[in-house]
Batch of 4 targets.
Target 1
Amino acid sequence: MPSEAQTSVKARVLSVQGLVSPSTLQLVRKGLPKRWPSSARCVFVSYAYADLPVGKRFDAVAASDTLQGAEATTARILAVTQQFGVALDAVPQGWKTICVINFPAGVPACVAQLPVLDAWDRSGRVFLATRETADALRADLSAAAPAPDR
């Protein structure tokens, strides 16, 4: 399994599809902590780009996988499970998972407004990344922007 260090910096974006519905949460609850902070959200996460351990921290959140318009945040993976409710110590590369992600400085609006889902969806709606990844993707966007007319 590729580690994060073996993954291109620009590919290190975690896709969050939506908030886990109460009915689905009951089905997987045994794989998650009994309690978590009020600033945490239980979310459906799309295929992980690498093995990401519990405790993994992200510094940026955006509604675009290019991280255009990204805002600074602090997000940390607190717990990981999947459809069978088995607790995992990492988000495995290439798996879809259910994660409890904490936003200790406050839940960003784009996360709070995610749809409540009963199962994984087809695409991501919110994307998490480190500052290093956000900066690399922002540099790509700047380089690709057309020069202003003079």
Target 2
Amino acid sequence: MKRTTSLIQKATVATIGFLLCVPILSRFIEIPKRKLDGVAMEYSHPRWSWKAVKKGKYQKGWEVWSTRDNPVWSWSIASTNELVYRLTGELSLDYVTSIQGGNDGYFWQPMYLKSFNGTRKPQAAVIEERFQQLAQAQELLALHNVTLIGLINPNILQLYPELIPDKYKAIVPGPKDYDIALEAIQRHKPEVFDAFARLKEEQPSYPIKFFEPTGSHWNDIASCLTVKGLSSKLADSWKESIPDPRCESYSMEYPPRPSDTDLVAIANLLFPRSLLRPAPYVQTPVPATLKKPRKILLVGTSFLFAIEKELLRRKIADTTTLLFYFKQIRKDGEGNFYGFDRRKITKEFLLRYDAIIVDANVSAPGSMGRGILPVIIKALQQETSSTPTTVEQSQMRKN
């Protein structure tokens, strides 16, 4: 018995000693690093300067380089995350994380938790002003035959509260931001498509949820249903016919596409593939055949990525421009985003488009449009009145 205990102790000490030597060995023996999503993988040792030494930056730089610029660090992060998740079902035990583990193998984002619980004071005045601005901007754009639609997106917490562990739930009684937004919409009558409410209504008709366990955004069916609702409003405004996208016609794929696995990628687990599940994807739709090419401007959050893709795929839009958080710009859903100067939002810029879609999450309806609504109002109020010549000019620009 003593001999067995002694062997175990020696083996443990030897293992610890070996692991301690691996960072040094990795400087002489090539050991592959494990890629970590959202984390820098290459570090360089700091450059010497007395100023950096006095401020402690030089010493800190050496600490970061020696710790992270070796393969042990990346593998240890993945191994620790895997161990914590398998033992607890969560990704962080200190609550300081951008994603967290939930029930039934789902991941979720704590950024929505304060709104879900109502622990953040509702921004009643901001919400009231925002939907009043939305209605006003819609009226001004309508004078030039430009359709403006507000879109309220869901999030997984508020659409599926049963997926959130009970220990995170501390719901405060009283109206939430979304409740206040509904009242403001009722008062000011802006054109809004409430995708959150529509998906709650449609859920009983589908055997699967509208979020994938490993994705941060709505899945293909949810974005299809949202485009269906938006298409109805666009068709009425344009006096056009837009085909039904047939969101109920879908097939399951495994593995899911990257857009449905972004959370598990960021989780940086050792065995992420074991958590993937088949995901639904709507079959190729019948494209719209519109009287003329349509241009659509989208302004807001990353939920618009899927909307933009669907508008282009279904030929509802011939070209699109996405102003991501009203800070960056991208054309036709391709390539990188580039910085955008808000001063470019002029009357001429706005009248290039046949429709404008602005969005906000159900957790923060007061952020609708991310600041573009007052800019639209200012740009269009510079003229004292609308004349037939002005309307004809706007139509010529689109054509």
Target 3
Amino acid sequence: MGGTMSASFESVNDVLSATLSRLHELHHENRLPKGRLHRISIKTRWNAITSDKNECGLAINRTGVDTFYGTHGKKAIRTLRTLIGKPLFDCAEWGILSTDSLERSIGIACLSALSQKFLSCSGVRKRGYISQCWKTNEDFVKDFPPVSRIIHPEEIVAVVGNGCQIIPLHNKCRKLQVISLAPGETFESVVIDKESVGIPAAIEYYAPNDSEKILGAADIVFLNTATLVDNSFEKYINEAKNARLIGMYGLGTSLIPDAFFERGIGMFSSFRIIDSTSFATAMKNEYDMECSMKIAQKEYLMMRQDIAFRVPDHSIHPGCG
């Protein structure tokens, strides 16, 4: 892997390559040193990486840890070990150009690590976008989830991918539709008390082959970052051409939004990694990264200026710079 972008990379006109190009520009403009890949952690749902300069990144794992058993697993481990000590930019380029979903995920995790310096509210605003951030355990965030601030009660909302982070929105819109290979029971909660038994009635579940019909009729579409790993992103944003807003959500959306906003995405909802020590500890010791991300990191919502954004006055966080 070379130190500069190859001709083949420059010929790939997609949102990930554009994001990497923008990160090159931001690092050059700010005269920042470029880190090297230090450690990779493969988990059931997430792939995580750290650099020798304490940069941390995360991407969804579409293959699971089963990838590392048997002959194929030994080959995958050998391949990933060759990345250790390489510049993060080179590892990111290598990964996002790959057709292998594991390698592509590692590339996106490297993009995530390279993005963290540029996800502060002040930095995002300087680049012309709206940005707010919160600690997840604050009461007003629990009572009024950030994503709900751009949904109108009469709208139809469609979610592509693992919808667990979006499910609480079912009582804030007219209809919530989830497109996923996982069965509906994966996301639902049945609430029982003395007065009633509550089963979410406003949530509908569909298989991926129904996506064109569902996304074409939705007012708001949220895409999970699994669409970046399995390369279905372009398909879904084209199918959502009639939506008022297309947003990206999930832990894996810890990326600079610039190139996505230029492609028509209007909103990013994710986390900024502000505690690299907790992240590195979770890489080694946690079964999943979600607990660490939600407790030790900072939740953010970034939007284009032209998107209607409803924020209660008390939600402006004094520490979101």
Target 4
Amino acid sequence: MIRPTNNSKPPLLELSSLEISRTISLARILLIVGLVFLHYLKFPNSSVWPYTGLDLNEHSVATFVNSAIFLFFLSVVPLLSLISGWLFFSFGNNDPMRTIFARIRRRFTSLYLPLVFWNGVFMVILYAIYKTNPHYPLLGDLNMDFSTAGWKQYINGIFGLTRRPISLQFWFVRDLFVTALVSPLLLLMSRRAPWLGAAALCTAWICGWSMVIFLRPDVPFFFYLGALVHLKQLPVTISRKTTMAVAAVFVAIVCVRAFAPLAVDFSGNIMPTWLRITTSLMRLVGVVACWGMLQHMAQTPRGTRIGGKYGGLAFFLHCAHWPLLAFLKIWLWPLMPAQTDLWMLVHDFSCVILTIIIGLGFGILLNRYAPAAFALMNGGRLLGQTKAKEQIK
């Protein structure tokens, strides 16, 4: 608790364990829903990626909205990584190395085994599609070409050893597992040179250096920040007033960033370094804004119900949402009456909402009728057994 001075405002209470538990449960599912929105990517009739911004030549309204949504949810991975680091390092001082190695072993079951299982299933499905229809639209969006792939590509497609697995969302799970593997080094760094270590990882993140073993540097950086927040006992409470102010600033930044093509030349699909760096830094504001909003939403009756009912399905939805989302984009696009901005946005939201409904529904049915299969696909967890202090997946 923060004690007020004589002329200070009422004190800001730290979150209780129950309130943190509720926030994490809500964060699990809502952040993964945000990831589904992010992975809609570009419209079928547009060549402009949402990371660039709006399309100045056509469908400016739809591409602006899609870009703004995409840029807003770029903060999902940093916040999930930060929470993961906070939870991973939530232990006492009694033999921390032993605790860390025990948690690494558990992460093999809860992260890496599901990665291998899901990508093996997706590999079979997508290869079957390739053999029956080699020109199917989805195949062109994969990070491997079945017509030329060798054994190394297939191994990486399933195991993600040196490249992203075939299902795009599993790069995050892969990097989260690798970060857990190097967590003893992170613990040592947090004790010997905590802020120098943070500065080094931040530099790697800003420069886009994957440090050889990672696919992207944002996961280890924010994971380490989460570890520092816990180890240094830094406050995690954000007042409602501050949350509203930071959220408003973040939304304004996102909108301005989505308008970037009005002032920045993207010819040759090259993004200026300064814009890439500022876009990365924008995500720091998003982490604060999203955590604050989740923190306050989680303490409401509705937020508590959503987190309690669906938080345990977050990892399953993360695993299942792609390529399901990509299939829905292909199947629903011909059903749109016209290729106008309005119907493009209808397509966007329809695909995302259907993906969420199907993914959650399938998970609930599996948990009820095939719990062993659900546990394997959900990292060893059955619904009702997920605890708030588990690592966010």
